[in-house]
Amino acid sequence: MIDDFIKLARNNIQKLEPYQSARRIGEGRSGDIWLNANESPTSVFFKLKKKSFNRYPECQPKELISYYANYANVSCDQVLVTRGADEGIELLIKAFCEPGKDAIIYCPPTYDMYGINARIHGVKIKEIPTIKDSWQLDLLNIKSNLNSVKLVYICNPNNPTGNIILKQDLISLLKMTLGHCLIIIDEAYIEFSPQESMTRYLNAYPNLVILRTLSKAFALAGIRCGFALAKKNIINILNKVIAPYPISIPVADIAIQSLETDYIEFMKNRVFDLNSNRVFLMNELNKLACVEKVFESHANYILVQFFMFEKIFYTLWDKGIVLRNQNDKINLKKCLRISIGTRLECFRLIQELQFFSKK
Question: Is the dihedral of CA 17, 20, 24, 29 positive or negative?
């Protein structure tokens, strides 16, 4: 009987491999140093200002939009509040792609949810891998594959490689697709390299959409709050397909507080500390014999190629240090992604890795 009901699911969903989030992979496993989800290693504490919850929230909280527009230096009509940047990825596909007809482009190795959302909605996928080792866009290949494409997803800084996509390449991509498709730049990690943001180009390029989140630098992964930034007409389209009440009152309350001047300064200090820890960790990793290559990073994680990567991954996990295995991704053989933790957590990781370097 259960099997009969399973067969009622759409064929593409029956075949779908779900995204393996850090929490889903880690279910049932113990750990005391979690370096696998690119979260902040430290917490921010807030007290709710709103005390009653019997009324539905605003679909798009005006005060939160005002605060984020001021932070991002855009106008309020260019902001949509979403449940993390992940909802923005899906809303764009729902709003702009005809199932079975249109396609998206994304450039692996990168965030898997671009492709998974397309598969969920029956939208075709064109994978255009980045150039190996440099991880830069293959613009010629993208240009020759734009037929039927409505959306191009670019993660910058890119996850899991940590590199910055060349700004001139992003501008070239925006120009070549103008009037043809939207370019979505996922800036989930942009606070770690703020000078690389493309927000200043929103008015110049009507096909530009930027995704943001409070999950990373703002240390608020637990509240699931993100933003889509775009021209007013695109925001209006996305508002047609978003859920009626996507942002709960407590989420909006905490998000607004996090965007107050003092908390933005706290965020910048946190970013400074994490960037310093990243430099420290990269320098220490480069001294270890078990490390084959440390890739340059501009985010709160680093990609590292290891000798004996599998043994290192599982041995560390058994000792309570959880990393993210990237070996199955294109061009990432023997690679592990390491989120930047506290300085103490970085010390502990290096101490454990020194054991493998002595073998």
Answer: positive
